[in-house]
From TrEMBL:
CDD domains in UniProt: NreA-like_DUF156
Organism, scientific name: Nitratireductor aquibiodomus RA22
Name of the protein: Metal resistance protein
Residue runs in coiled coils: none
Domain of life where this protein originates: Bacteria
Upper lineage: Bacteria, Pseudomonadati, Pseudomonadota, Alphaproteobacteria, Hyphomicrobiales
Length: 93
C-alpha cells in the first residue's frame, strides 16, 4: 500500500468544486425542509449533480493523463493506439 500522498495538479480545483457542490446540496436540503416548489428543488439538484459529474470526469481524465502514462511508459505507435483510444473514449463517461 502506498503511503505517499497521491496528488495531481487538478486536485485543488476538484476539491473546490466538490466543496461548492456540498454547500449547494445543503441548500437543496434546506429548500426541501422549507417546502419550496419541486421544480426549484429539481433544478438545484440537477446543478449539484452536474458539478459532481464534472469533478468525477476531471479526476478520471487527470488519472488517465498522468497515472496511466507512468504505468505503460514508452510504447510503439501501434501499441500506443489502444491506450490513446481508451483515453479518448473515457471522455464520454
Amino acid at each position: 500500500m502506498n503511503t505517499q500522498p497521491h496528488l495531481h495538479e487538478t486536485h485543488p480545483q476538484i476539491v473546490k468544486r466538490l466543496k461548492r457542490a456540498d454547500g449547494h446540496l445543503r441548500g437543496v436540503i434546506e429548500m426541501i425542509e422549507a417546502g419550496r416548489p419541486c421544480l426549484d428543488i429539481a433544478q438545484q439538484l440537477h446543478a449539484v449533480e452536474k458539478a459532481i459529474a464534472q469533478a468525477k470526469k476531471t479526476l478520471i481524465q487527470d488519472h488517465l493523463d498522468h497515472c496511466l502514462e507512468e504505468v505503460v511508459g514508452p510504447m510503439t505507435r501501434e501499441r500506443r493506439q489502444s491506450i490513446d483510444e481508451f483515453r479518448e473514449i473515457a471522455k464520454y463517461l
